[in-house]
Amino acid sequence: MGRPKKDDKVHIVRTEHVLFFTRLFEGLNIDLLPLLRETRVPNTLIDQPEYLYLPESTLKNLLQKLGQSVSISEYGLRVWEMCSVKYVPSYLEKLEDGVSLKVCLTEFGELLKRESSNTKVYVKQAGGSWWLVREKSGVEEVWFKYAEMFSVLFMVQLLKQLTHGQYQPTEIGVQSNVIDDFLKLPELHKVRFYSERPVTALKIDDELIEQLVTIGKKSSEPNEFMPTILSFTQSLKLALSPYFTAGKLPLDMASDITNIHSRTIQRRLREEGTNYKEFSEEILFALIKSALTRSHNVSKIAQQFGYSDCAHFTRAFKRYEGVTPSQYRASIDAK
């Protein structure tokens, strides 16, 4: 992918959202595994992974790749269809029924913050009108235009479904400096766009904002929200753990995946009393111990985590844990 400006924070999203974005490529002549490698998504994503979170950068990379692989019109159609049929309905099931549109959208913004650590969506009154607002940094980066197009289409579809088709987009402010591509998106060719705005914002008619929302079907499954991130180390661990399932992850690769400079990673970890070597070993051996609880096949586990032979694996495990993998496994059996 391109080389965007380095960040200094770890932003994470739920894995289910990354899975959704990969489905936007269905039907295209693009092999999945090379696509995942190019967009810095772990290959294990296709095997019903157990990890709940991934770096937000994976979503940005996927949208940029899709936008550069198809025409703007096809990009818009793919996003519009997936949002209308699957993505928006998955959120509607989690929202409260029988409240005003304003309250419902506020609830949606709170829900979104719990599923993506770098997302801010809210309702605001400005210039005598109501707006659904989305804040996002990175407007100068390549992925941003495609991400903003996605957000506009998603928010339009969200408003249409919450109002049962009564909402029709008329005025939209975008952060991007060129609006021609936005006019090629589904149902937006007659919209009045304002470019180079500080935020992305969709105008909502006054008569809709206090209208009661009827959602209907509700999900019976409890919402699982992102944990409160207390430190850089904790958020970095959530973001990078999926990449250790195949073995060690060098610092330069961690930097590339998270879009955080390697020196920044080391500095932030040092400020919290650790370093990348200790941090990465803690993740790696925690995953190895988890694998040992499920299997007696030490050789297979050694191979899975990238060790050249069982002897090398045994020495590394004993250095870290104080016992051999076989002894660790035996202690589990004895319990």
UniProtKB/TrEMBL annotation:
Key word Transcription regulation present? yes
Q: Does the keyword Oxidoreductase apply?
A: no
- Write out the entry's keywords from A to Z: DNA-binding, Transcription, Transcription regulation
Q: Can you name a GO cellular component term?
A: cytosol
A Pfam family the protein falls into:
HTH_18
**Which Gene Ontology molecular-function terms are recorded?**
DNA-binding transcription factor activity; transcription cis-regulatory region binding
Domain HTH araC/xylS-type, residue spans: 234-331
InterPro entries xrefs: Homeodomain-like_sf, HTH_AraC, Tscrpt_reg_AraC-type_HTH
Entries under PANTHER family matching the protein:
HTH-TYPE TRANSCRIPTIONAL REGULATOR GADX
Q: What is the official name of this protein in its record?
A: AraC-type DNA-binding protein
Q: Which organism is it from?
A: Vibrio hangzhouensis
